[in-house]
Each structure stands twice: as structure tokens, then as C-alpha cells.
Amino acid sequence: MNGQGVRWLALAVLAVLPAALAAQEPGAGLGARLSARGLPADLVQQVQRIASDAAAQGVPAGPLADKAVEGWAKHVPPARLVAALRQFAGQMAEAGAAVRSAGLENPPGSVIAAAAEAMGGGLKPDQVQSVVRAAGSAEEASPGLSVVASLTAQGLGASQAVSIVVEAMRHRQSMSQLLDLPSVARSLHDQGMSPGEIGDRLLPHHDDGPGGGEHHGDKDRPPGVPPGPSHPAEPVRP
Questions:
Q1: Cα dihedral across residues 122, 126, 66, 24: positive or negative
Q2: Can you tell me the distance from the alpha carbon of 116 to that of 96, in angstroms, rounded to the nearest whole number?
Q3: How far are the Cα atoms of 138, 177, 217 from residue 143, in angstroms, in the given order?
Q4: Cα(88)–Cα(98) distance, rounded to whole angstroms?
Q5: Cβ contact 89:59 at 8 Å
Q6: SS3 string of the chain?
Q7: Cα distance between residue 47 and residue 62, in whole Å
Q8: Under a CB-based contact definition with an 8 Å cutoff, are residues 183 and 199 in contact?
Q9: CA-to-CA distance for 28 and 149, rounded, in angstroms?
Q10: pTM, two decimal places
Q11: Alpha-carbon torsion, ordered 59, 179, 233, 124, to 10 deg
Q12: C-alpha distances in angstroms, 69 versus 26, 65, 120, 135?
């Protein structure tokens, strides 16, 4: 290679090096995003350090940033917020390992965060794996895990909540039916049912068939749930 070729190669390396380093930096762009949402500089630096440490375990920075922004908007004291972020990062590391073991080699941050929230509500790694395997794809795994987390937050046991979601997926219920489960559970609770009774009612029965159930043609209601008023589903917040 002549002298001119060497110079062009050096210039090319210098041109791509900053972008390559930025891509390796887990907090790239994170600081600007947090600062834009009003977080003070010292808190931004602490969040960046947490994200950098967590990246070594395959934890994405996006859900951590979302959690930080939400906590700051709710006026959570910085010390408590930092502690919560460290705990969430640890949960996401464990959740990411469980999700990968279930067959999703490169799970998106949304799936890892949903799994972490579910595990924070009492799910064990093997239960997370059951939901992921039943879903078969990241697009279905994330809402499935979020529904489990919502059901456990309403008082259902983790095993029962997992069984409800896994059976719903195996019976090929629609995504609208799956996402409607927390609001249906809330409606049944308002009717005076205990969490155990709600769980039994939400479990699909094998004789119902896909999308079936004794609900008089109401195809958007899970099998076994009688028609009646229901409340809008509320998203599961991180």
C-alpha cells in the first residue's frame, strides 16, 4: 500500500471510530435523554453508571431509562430512585437469562423488562420460561408476561396466573382476549369473587375450543367468563 493509501485508511478509521465507541457505550444518548426530561446532572451520572454496569450482563439501557424518567416524574427521592434502578437492573439480568434459556437468543428490551416486572411480582425463572415458550415469539412473550404481572398484582398466585396465560396462548386466544384478562379479572373481583375463584374462571377449558367458551358469542371475552360489563384494561407500569 502506498503512502496515499495509508493516509486514506487512517482517515477512514478515524471517521468510524467515534461511532464505534458510541455504539459500545451502553449509556450512549442516555444522558441526553434523561437531561431532556429534567433529571439533574448528578442523578443522570448515577443512572449512566448503573446502565454501564448492567450492560455487561446483557441488560438494555432503555427500560432503565424509562424507569428513571417515571420515578423522577413521580418525585421519587434520588436515593430511593437509584436503589430501585439497581434492583431493577439485577432483576432484568436474571430475567434476561431466563428468557434466553427459553429459546429467545436476542430478546428485545421490552421482553426482558416485562419478564423482570413479572419476576418482581413473584414469578420464578422457570415460570417465565413457560410463558416465553408458550408465546413462541417476542411479539407475544412481552404482552403475555405483562398480563401475568398484572394478574399477580391483583392477588392471583403466580402459578395460577402463569397457567391462565399459558393456556390462553395454547388455545390460540387472540391478542385482544389475552390483553383483556386483567380487566376481566377486575370485573369478577368487583362481583365478589376471590382470587382463586377468578383464576378458575379465567382458565380455558379444553372442551371450549380455540376462542370458544360459554359466553354467548362474545368472542372477545376469555372462555368461561360470562358476558357483562368490564373495565378498560390498564397497562402494567414499570
A1: positive
A2: 8
A3: 9, 11, 25
A4: 15
A5: yes
A6: CCHHHHHHHHHHHHHHHHHHHHHHCCCCCHHHHHHHCCCCHHHHHHHHHHHHHHHCCCCCHHHHHHHHHHHHHCCCCHHHHHHHHHHHHHHHHHHHHHHHHCCCCCCCHHHHHHHHHHHHCCCCHHHHHHHHHHHCCHHHHHHHHHHHHHHHHCCCCHHHHHHHHHHHHHCCCCHHHHHHHHHHHHHHHHCCCCHHHHHHHHCCCCCCCCCCCCCCCCCCCCCCCCCCCCCCCCCCCC
A7: 11
A8: no
A9: 30
A10: 0.69
A11: -50
A12: 17, 6, 19, 30
Return the C-alpha cell found at 36.
431532556
**pLDDT tens for each residue of the chain, 238 residues long:** 554 443 433 333 333 333 333 333 445 488 888 998 899 999 999 999 999 998 888 888 999 999 999 999 999 999 999 999 999 999 999 999 999 999 888 899 999 999 999 998 899 999 999 999 999 888 899 999 999 999 999 999 999 999 999 999 998 888 899 999 999 999 999 999 999 899 899 987 644 443 444 443 344 444 444 444 333 344 434 4
Q: Which three cell numbers stand for residue 194?
A: 376471590
Quote the cell numbers at residue 27. 449509556
